[in-house]
Design brief:
The protein is mainly β. The strands form 13 sheets. Strands 35, 38, 39, 41, 46, 47, 48 and 50 form an eight-stranded antiparallel beta sheet that branches. Strands 1, 3, 4, 6 and 8 form a five-stranded mixed beta sheet that branches. The longest helix is centred in the C-terminal third of the chain and has 11 residues. A hairpin with a 2-residue loop joins strand 47 and strand 48. The chain is built from two helices and 50 strands. The radius of gyration is 47 Å and the shape is rod-shaped. The chain folds into six domains: 94 residues, no CATH class; 81 residues, no CATH class; 81 residues, no CATH class; 78 residues, no CATH class; 87 residues, Immunoglobulin-like, CATH 2.60.40.10; 221 residues, Jelly Rolls (Sandwich), CATH 2.60.120.
């Protein structure tokens, strides 16, 4: 009877089911339309079907539980249970974590977005690549994956890696430095530098050096491409095509240029025939040249003479060669045909001998008339005579060995009694009167020297910059280098500047006008300079100080197309003083000019080459404005294509003895 009463009582109880958001931050709980239920009925659990659905920031809905703390019975949508009492189902919330990608100082592009984020705690995350649109980029860097710290000291990931998420995660772009490789033509006169299609490179990458592969290829007049170097002056690391290096910085690779030189044959007053042509010219510097014979078609001829080989100077004072001889080339070379006169008259003996002692050498000055092809000398008062080889035909002759054997050098401090005989193709002259000479160590004459520029002295030029420092006058009157002439220091004993090589122009040194170097009437001055002229046969300036462009007042020393030197010294008069012919060569020479405006003291303007006087002329012209800058090798005669090693300016007239002493003291660097 009691059980019947309980059954009746429960049959009249209708339990409810209520859904609880349980700290949700938005949304509405679902409502069960069947609640209340009959006692012992079956309840089907709803999903998160409120409108809007429940949500909790930082969490994901994870079903329901009979306890708010999740310690009761859990249900998910579609589960069923038998309801016997009023029931509250609490939303279960499982933490979720975001994955955010950060460009980390990117300069362009957009970070990728993970469409699966946020993730349930413990989920597996697959790392994305640099897949934003546009892609991330940072100037000077390459994308290198991701890291959990902006400084890259956390955990690194690349695309496709996975990790288990347990917290909000920011993945920072990793950036690795990139470096460019740029090829520089380095004073090329034509062509285009190659471009490395793989540049920029990631730091630490291997770079394979390109060849001269621009289109058109790089070229430089008077030079041949000789690979690359990390410094424009060639003193860095050298590379050729196919070499490799590890890149750690932006790199400029400069073209290396190796000088080439031409060999030209000159008929030298021939009356018929054609000069031979050397098919191997131009040559790389340092190459061996084999001398060609008189093989033009037709061969060279000169009326009244017979062909007698070649010489580096038209007057035969240079180095003589015959067919098959060889030499190592280091400058443009003109070889002049030499002509021996048929049936010449016997020459007269040299007269008026005087001497200058050099360092284990002797210089003998004299006067000569008639046709001479060489001299013989005696160092023992005529006991023995020896012909000069190579030939010497002008005053002064230079004696370096004893006449008795032609091998033993002269000794400083020993006095020798010297005689000369003149030679031509017909006979010998009688011997000259004797002169005594004592060789001695020579040094540059310093008295009254105002300017002394020396490319071999680091105190004058360190190897870089635009100032060629004057070693005199406390550094005043230094020269400014214009147009970036090449400083050639390949030979540590003979450093020099290359001016206007090949097709280059606008290169010169300039000393600004100053009272100490401006000409004064009736006051002589002397200029000396060690020069190698690289375009003999054309015209150019050695030094110039021309004051007024309308009248060309001033002075200039230049070389001309007819193988002469010319001194221009002009104010109210037009004065051109030309040297004898055949004084130019493609080798180094010490050029000297004695100049004076006005006629005080009866002095003459003179030009010397290696101590030999090649011009003397009297000028009575005064001077007007003297305040023009001094330039070399450019000016009145145009731009000179020259190498220059030293430059001296004296505010006095050097004697021929002093000029020869300066030549002797410095020639070891150039000859």
């Amino acid at each position: 009877m009691a059980n019947d009463r309980r059954a009746y009582r429960y049959s009249r109880f209708f339990p409810t089911i209520i859904y609880d958001g349980n700290t949700n931050t938005s949304g509405n709980v679902p409502t069960d339309g069947y609640s209340p239920y009959s006692y012992d009925s079956t309840v089907t659990v709803l999903g998160n079907s409120g409108s809007p659905a429940l949500a909790k920031t930082g969490y994901i809905f994870d079903g329901w539980n009979t306890a708010a703390d999740g310690s009761g019975t859990s249900y998910v949508q579609g589960n069923t249970f038998t309801i016997k009492t009023n029931t509250r189902l609490y939303a279960k919330w499982t933490p979720t974590y975001t994955v955010v990608y950060n460009g980390n100082e990117n300069t362009s592009g957009v970070s990728p977005v993970d469409g699966s984020s946020p993730y349930v705690s413990g989920s597996t995350v697959t790392v994305l690549g640099d897949s934003g649109s546009p892609l991330l980029a940072k100037t000077g860097f390459a994308f290198d994956g991701w890291n959990t710290q902006a400084n890259g000291l956390g955990i690194s990931y690349v695309e496709g890696n996975t990790f288990t998420i347990g917290a909000n995660t920011i993945l920072y772009a990793k950036w690795i430095p990139t470096y460019t490789v740029v090829y520089d033509g380095n004073t090329n006169t034509s062509g285009i530098s190659p471009a490395d299609g793989s540049s920029p490179y990631v730091s630490g990458s291997t770079v394979t050096v390109l060849g001269n592969s621009g289109s058109p290829v790089l070229a430089k007049t008077g030079y041949i491409f000789d690979g690359w170097n990390t410094q424009a002056n060639g003193l860095g690391i050298s590379y050729v095509e196919g070499n490799t290096f590890t890149i750690e910085a932006n790199t400029i690779i400069y073209a290396k240029w190796r000088r080439t030189y031409t060999v030209l044959y000159n008929g030298n007053t021939n009356t018929s025939g054609i000069v031979p042509v050397d098919g191997y010219s131009p040559y790389l510097s340092g190459s061996t040249v084999t001398i060609i014979g008189n093989i033009g078609d037709p061969v060279l001829e000169k009326t009244g003479y017979v062909f007698d080989g070649w010489n580096t100077q038209a007057n035969g004072l240079g180095i003589s060669y015959v067919e098959g001889n060889t030499f190592t080339i280091g400058a443009n070379r003109i070889l002049y045909a030499q002509w021996a006169e048929l049936n010449p008259a016997t020459p007269s003996a040299p007269t008026a001998l005087s001497s200058v002692g050099g360092n284990t050498e002797a210089y003998i000055l004299f006067t000569q008339s008639g046709n001479v092809t060489n001299y013989e000398y005696s160092t023992d008062d005529g006991a023995t005579f020896l012909a000069f080889n190579p030939r010497q035909i002008y005053s002064p002759v230079n004696i370096t060995t004893l006449s008795s054997d032609g091998v033993t050098p002269l000794t400083n401090g020993v006095t020798y009694t010297v005689k000369l005989k003149a030679v031509n193709s017909g006979a010998l002259s009688v011997e000259s009167v004797s002169v005594e000479v004592t060789p001695t160590t020579t040094s540059l004459f310093t008295s009254n020297r105002v300017v002394y520029l020396d490319a071999n002295d680091v105190n004058s030029y360190s190897g870089s910059g635009t100032t060629w420092t004057n070693l005199e006058s406390s550094g005043s009157y230094s020269a400014t280098l214009n147009g970036s002439p090449t400083f050639n220091e390949a030979d540590t004993q003979n450093k020099y500047f290359e001016f206007n090589a090949g097709e280059l122009t606008g290169q010169f040194a300039q000393i600004n006008q100053a009272a100490a170097i401006n000409p004064v009437v009736d006051t002589p001055f002397t200029i000396q300079m060690w020069v190698r002229i690289n375009n003999v046969g054309t015209q150019g300036s050695l030094v110039s100080k021309v004051f007024d462009s309308s009248s060309y007042d001033g002075y200039a020393l230049g070389y001309r197309t007819d193988d002469t030197l010319q001194l221009h010294a002009n104010s109210s008069q037009i004065n051109y003083f030309t040297s004898v012919a055949g004084v130019l060569s493609s080798g180094w020479a010490l050029y000297t000019a004695n100049v004076q405006f006005g006629d005080e003291g009866g002095r003459q303007n003179k030009i010397f080459v290696n101590g030999r006087q090649v011009m003397s002329a009297t000028s009575t012209d005064n001077i007007g404005n003297s305040t023009k800058n001094m330039t070399f090798p450019t000016g009145f005669y145009g731009e000179g294509e020259c190498d220059i090693g030293q430059f001296y300016y004296y505010n006095t007239e050097l004697t021929q003895t002093q000029i020869i002493q300066n030549f002797d003291a410095t020639k070891h660097m150039y000859m």
